[in-house]
Amino acid sequence: xxxxxxxxxxxxxxxxxxxxxxxxxxxxxxxxxxxxxxxxxxxxxxxxxxxxxxxxxxxxxxxxxxxxxxxxxxxxxxxxxxxxxxxxxxxxxxxxxxxxxxxxxxxxxxxxxx
Length: 114
Fold this sequence. Notes:
Layout: E1 3-7, E2 10-13, E3 18-25, E4 34-39, E5 46-51, E6 57-59, E7 67-72, E8 77-82, E9 91-97, E10 108-113
Parallel strand pairs: 2-10
Antiparallel strand pairs: 1-3, 3-8, 4-5, 4-9, 5-6, 7-8, 9-10
């Protein structure tokens, strides 16, 4: 069974940075577009960044210019570098394929205080 393990979350003040990582086991990332999703209380889980197998990236408007998604296919790892964090970035972050066809991991929690 495919496992996705996210890490790197934490509590930071507004303006700070975090780098999230997602490692997959029992699957090769290489052929799949991958993405980072964010879930906040009372809202559906939404895609914030995606990257194709060739490295083409797309971002939701609210994170453009602040977040950078990258991937290392050899390590089956996807990263999300988050800079200039805002309180509205608070939530639980998950990685998955795009569309999300893999089993969800436990996520990693990000809390940004003002």
